[in-house]
User: Which sequence fits this backbone?
């Protein structure tokens, strides 16, 4: 991850991923695991979200679910079949399933999630021939920045826990 | 499906599945694919939901997601690790993923979904040794009734479409 053919990258892709990363920062600022997502329709963001599981006390409040719900509300249609999603971390099973449900045809993600990723790592939910919907996937866009904010978050958490133990 | 050892069935299980089925009927009445779910904590329903994808124009508005969100709000905790879910149809990947996210330890479902079921049929997301969370699953409870309402719904839909074509 993090290295890819140079023709893979286009300026708009980086722009959208930067917006997703900004969402991840917003999650970090409220003490949530920093993952962010945007749904783009043409050249317009129609949905954005950052992980708010703790704040909303809702296990479904992942960045992708919130961004998809907002995009569908914004477009007045549950079918997001002319949208694409940018997300800082490889989606989990729930979020990959939501991408299928929303018929999103393009997913671009940053860092891989070797423990729970359901696109390439643990499951490959978006490239299964038995399902009707197929999704074009690109991974590794700004993977370093997307992964770094997660490492920082978990490092801080560890330090806080260690300090508490010492008190 | 539909046949199971008689000691599998307990009256409370049937009671809770009947409530899930009532939710499915509520979906049918508003023209939605009839799937219903309840989340039970001890002997109390803390979340219920029926498919409202069309009404809410939200691809994530499946019965299970709505029931989980309501249960978490009701208990003030995203962890539903002392709850169980009753749902009329085998969950899809999104909903099976949400069950994992919510740490629900027991799932009881009615009819199988050979096309999109992600518990036994297409994927086995809830019994994967690589994931931290494991879920005890029982299937086939009131499978006939749970499947019948779906068959009725799709039969009606077919008739309506055929009638429209003739007009």
Assistant:
């Amino acid at each position: 991850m993090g290295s890819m053919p140079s023709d893979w990258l286009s300026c708009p892709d980086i722009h959208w991923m930067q917006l997703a990363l900004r969402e991840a920062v917003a999650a970090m600022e409220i003490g949530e695991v920093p993952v962010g997502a945007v749904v783009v329709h043409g050249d317009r963001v129609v949905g954005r979200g950052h992980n708010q599981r703790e704040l909303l006390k809702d296990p479904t409040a992942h960045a992708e679910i919130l961004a998809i719900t907002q995009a569908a509300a914004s477009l007045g249609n549950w079918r997001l079949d002319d949208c694409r999603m940018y997300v800082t971390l490889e989606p989990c099973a729930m979020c990959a399933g939501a991408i299928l449900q929303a018929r999103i045809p393009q997913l671009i993600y940053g860092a891989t999630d070797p423990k729970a990723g359901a696109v390439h790592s643990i499951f490959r939910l978006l490239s299964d021939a038995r399902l009707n919907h197929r999704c074009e996937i690109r991974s590794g866009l700004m993977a370093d920045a997307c992964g770094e904010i997660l490492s920082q978050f978990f490092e801080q958490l560890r330090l806080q826990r260690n300090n508490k133990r010492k008190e």
User: Anything to note?
Assistant: The helical segments of chain B are 11-29, 53-56, 63-75, 93-101, 143-166.
